[in-house]
Write a structure and sequence with these properties.
Number of helices: 9
CATH topology: Glutaredoxin
Strand content: 5-15%
CATH class: Alpha Beta
Low-confidence stretches: none
Mean pLDDT: 95
Number of strands: 6
CATH architecture: 3-Layer(aba) Sandwich
Number of domains: 1
Largest sheet: 4 strands, mixed
């Protein structure tokens, strides 16, 4: 079964959705599932160097504390999912294009390598407060994942990968996806948002019953 997941690396609900989806997959461990982690930039016009996070939030939303209640809820939710949110450590609002390029490049090695890269980038941002728009940080993450750091440095600025990202994001919009996380099962069913595992299981079982796998 093919599952294509559109998400952004600065979206905390994408992190939650990833872990809930993986919990669902754990309950169908005998099922062959190919997961592709695909890009969806929530701030595509962010300068490549990123911005000071507090200043960015204040300019866009009127206050850097606007999401305090949501962040508190996410911190409470995190431990049950194996996520350690530390929003207080985040000082930069990054441009996420390079992080998506790293994840796409890792996918060329294997689906497992891509999933690992996705997880490490999310943890670097939300748990460690690292600037995932920084080439140095992304190359370090690649090395921590056991990937070729020199090749990763080239990949994150590869024009072909950047064009691929733009193409995939355009595809998401043509599929009616305007927010993330978004999980597309076998090119038939869309699950939007960080749903509970049971919601994913219902769709997985429906696809299996229909004999659909995707392309």
């Amino acid at each position: 079964m093919l599952v294509e997941v559109f998400s952004d690396t600065v979206c905390p609900w994408c992190y939650v959705g990833k872990h809930r989806f993986e919990q669902a997959l754990g309950q169908r461990a005998d099922l062959a599932v190919e997961v592709r982690w695909l890009p969806f930039e929530l701030n595509p016009d962010m300068p490549v160097e990123g911005a000071d996070r507090a200043q960015y939030l204040a300019a866009k939303f009127g206050s850097s504390d606007r999401f305090a209640d949501a962040q508190r809820s996410l911190r409470e939710l995190g431990p049950g999912l194996g996520i350690d949110f530390h929003f207080e450590r985040i000082t930069r609002m990054p441009n996420t294009r390079r992080s998506h390029a790293l994840i796409a490049w890792a996918g060329g090695a294997s689906p497992a390598a891509q999933a690992d890269a996705q997880e490490r980038v999310l943890a670097a941002y939300f748990s460690e407060g690292r600037d995932i728009g920084s080439p140095e940080v992304l190359v370090a993450i690649a090395g921590e994942a056991g990937l070729d750091a020199a090749a990763a440095r080239t990949a994150i600025d590869d024009p072909l990968l950047h064009q691929q990202i733009a193409t995939l994001e355009a595809q998401a919009h043509t599929w009616g996806i305007h927010g993330v996380p978004a999980f597309v099962f076998a090119r038939r069913y869309l699950v939007s948002g960080a749903q509970e595992p049971e919601a994913f299981l219902q769709v997985i079982d429906r696809v299996v019953a229909e004999g659909a796998t995707g392309t």
